[in-house]
Amino acid sequence: MIDAIPSFSGPNLALAQATVATLGVVVMIGVAFLDRPHRSTLLWSIAFLIAMISSWGIVLAETVDSEAMRRVSIGVLMGAPGFIWAGFRTLRGAGSRWWLAALLSAISPVLLVAAGATEAYSVVFRIVFFLSAVFAFLLLVEWLRLPDRGDTVLYPLVVISVLNAALAAFVAVAGLIFPASSGDDLQFVRSVNQLGFVIYMVCALVSLVGFATRRERLISRDARTPWEDFLTGCRDRLVRAARRGEHSWALLVFRLDDEADVRDAVGVAGFAAVCEGFAQAIREALPADADIAERRPGTVVVLVSRPEPVLRAALRGALARVGRMENAGGMEIQVSASVGWIAVDPGDVVGGEDDLEALLERAEAAADSARAAGGDRWERVGV
């Protein structure tokens, strides 16, 4: 099918992959894990360690011309993206499920070696490659759950994960429509995968090291983020309020309008300044006893107990303060905000931890509705 396309695999490409993987291990462990010891950086370091070992195995296989060793090394490599996904799961306190990645690294070599002939090997290779890319897709799901998913340092990893998942889907479908007719066809597919993995490792290294070193949440294994402290404090306050029979509580989500346009206008550093001023304006406008935290850049969450008329006046003041922010981000731009307002009955929330998260999602949806209606306003919903 693709006999006319020259193969670009071989010792040189394998050596390049091994070199990048080795550099990744040194940087990830030396810069990320040792400086920010955490389950996430540990799992990311393991991912690069697996990539390094398997890559040098491929180099050795190319040198001695051992197909069995080459297949074992490729199989072990397939589980590496899974450890990156597992690391992201730990950032939100979920179980890492690293054993899924380890299982793929253990089973893939056995399947690839046992496949034998070119036809069977082609099918098995495409299957394990697809399973490896599933972890890239799941990583995107975890990225969407991050409070600070707008951090641009993660964009290289996000983009390459999308491309990796798309490539695996294409290879799987192409294998069904155009089965490998020769060893050259399969060699080309394997070469594309090898080159793609080099690019994947570079993007992952840039994103993960940058993300780890810029996040205080990764200082120690037992460290808690300000957001986690905020949620814990809110639940404690609502428990006490339920015992006293209080009902006039509200959960507010402030979201910066036209967030993407503001970021493009002022740049990354300027947008950080805008978000800082945005949060400060909200703190100054709301009661001093309100619980306030930044969920992600451009989104501030508030838990407050006030009668509705008082809260409406406070919201008008907060939106006015945001609108009067001067020289935001170092440029003359006008900013505004939208608010999702949901009434909270403490007695309904203390029944479980997921109740507060559900209220947050509804409040964010209300803020989205307010923004869709033109922004610079609030949208109120009941419990």
Automatic annotation (TrEMBL):
Record key words, sorted: Membrane, Transmembrane, Transmembrane helix
UniProt entry tagged with the keyword Zinc: no
Protein's UniProt name: GGDEF domain-containing protein
Signal peptide: none
SUPFAM superfamilies: Nucleotide cyclase
Superkingdom, taxonomy of origin: Bacteria
InterPro entries (alphabetical): Nucleotide_cyclase (IPR029787), Rev_trsase/Diguanyl_cyclase (IPR043128)
